[in-house]
Give the backbone structure.
Amino acid sequence: MTSALHEPAAAPARRGGPARAGRRSVMARWDARIGLLFALPTFLLFLAFRFGPAIAGVGLSFFDYDISGTLEWEGLANFERMVGDPVFWQALRVTVLYTVLAVPLSLGMSLVMALAVRRRFRGVGFFRSVFFLPVITSLVLAGTVFVWVFSTDGPVSTISQWLGGSGQSWLSSSLLVVPALVLVGVWSRFGYGMLILLAGLQEVPRELEEAALTDGAGPWARFRHIVLPHLKPSLFFLAVIETTASFQVFDLIFVMTQGGPARGSYTLVYMLYDQGFKYVDYGYAAAIGVALFAMTLVVAVIQRRFLGRES
Amino acid sequence: MRLATKSLVAAGAACTVLLAGCSSSSDGGGSAGGGEDGALSGEVTMWIYPIIADEAAHTGFWDAQVAAFTEENPDVDVTVQVYPWAGRDESLTTAIASGTGPDVVYLIPDQLATYQSSIEPVDDYLSAEHVADILPNVADSITVDGQMLGSPLLTSSNPLVCDKAAFDAIGATEYPATWDDLLDLAPDLAEQGIYATNYWGSPEVTLNMTFYPLLWQAGGDVFSEDGTSVAFNSDAGVEALEFLVELNEGGYLEPDLITTTPSIEQTALAQNKVACTWQSGPADVESYWGEENIVIQPPLTQEETVGYGTVGSLSMLKGSENKAAAGAWIDFVTSADPVTEFVTTAKMFSPLSSTGELYADDPVYGAIEQTIPDTTVGPVNEHAREVMGVLAPEIQAALLGQKSAQEALDDAAASADAMLG
């Protein structure tokens, strides 16, 4: 049916012979050039403000830079200092711990919420909007409120006391501070993941699910063998995005704990900020940035290998 | 890949602006700013921060000063830009590196050390009478390597500020003068649900206002005399930290402040549950305690009576292209009359001897004015902030019981000395 409908349009092209095909080729090349022209400003802006500074940052990691303008070649000294700096390893541990906790929790939460609001029911639009609300809420404002939520007088400590706990503020505990930050981080991001997965769920063929249902497949079997395989590209995308965001976590920590207690929530990006902007040690800060880049690249490649191969 | 790019942008941007900074001609030259007939000319830009909380009063003050200066120097165009306190170092370092910094900027002593390489000494731009008028201890605090890196605009003092209502609640009529006094009062205050004091333990809070006053009161100091190593892990330092730990273990400190920095409305201070503090001033607590309940006491005493007080000064940056005009503006606006008007509006104190006592009739600020001789600006050392960065988390560790006071200070000292090289 489809080919029959297209046939009349295709026929004149064939009748035009090589001359018509040549003109079409010229037009295609012309269109491509116009397209490139339109993309050029964005490409140049990207080069100037994203790619350029990134390359410059790598270069800076080999120098000692004073804001008065002095630039001294340091070779690998900044990297040697970093490797011997216990604060770097502490920050790396915190960053990895945050990522290991936040990424699966965020993906799981996003998936559960996406499945919950997948079907059309009365008020589904309201619930989707409410679940997305944290994404567009200022993290600084939310962080300020969550400082109280986790404080000694806050609801979390009060509930903990009811359950027989000590009632200690989570933000004062080296053990609980990262989980507290993870919970707030996941709260602020799951709406975005939900939206991506909701779009992915629209691609799951309804007839497959219906056929499975007819064959007697239960909800778990339908989810595992039909829904999940179709969501793999979306999940891979989210895994990379969430890992990236977790490695870069800063604003939440800046507002809620400032890296404390006793560096219990001190991440690599927080260390980079301290070295660059508080201690004006740009070379060392750049070296930390390069290490973070390398780490992210390795993790992204691993994720691609295990999650995104078929995507 | 998006992460990778973003991760490097901060440092990369710094490099980019650095290159711009290197290539620009930042030397204004000694003759710049002088007109053909010797009159001053050119543009002068100054960055200042909301020292006077009332925005209209603040801008009104600077508008009036600019008008008065321009009347004497019609060819000089002065622009005063009021920036927020938040992120001021980030803004300034970026601007200096990119060669777009102001001609004049407001700095405090620990910043002077940090930005020393970018600051033009002001000795040659102030009149001899002006220099002679600066209080000797103030002049010392802004002098690095024998050069004055700024002209003082104000001084401040952080004495002990007590809530009379808290003391009424336990029937006490004497306010604490020593560490022991505070410890003696603490149990009675705790029975009434009042903390004896508070301690802002976050690494983002300067130790000049929190731990260092205790260190100085115990007779210790942050750096060795030559500034090449740290000295805070001395017996005095351990005594100071053990005093804090004792207060915390007794439940006499607000626990959440040790690890977080909530807004003041969320703290016990705003709920009239802190008896005394050396980390907030009358302006911070007045709306919660009521002016009638504010009692000013000298800084606490252990071996010595000493508290933190800062000196705010106007510094000229080396990148200024109108040094003569900028110097004249600094000399003008930090002279006695403008300083008197500024500090009385801002509820600060004068760095000049000729202005005399400014708050003789004010019981609160008059009392604070009397404590100025007991204050110090803290260490003026280019590594002062990095040292705070390694010390503050160790103090937190001691307060949370993860380390003893000695272990915490020794660990911080080891990290700090490694930085000092």
About this structure: Residues 1-14 of chain A have pLDDT under 50 and may be disordered. The longest strand of chain A covers residues 63-65. Chain A touches chain B through 67 residues (CB under 8 Å).
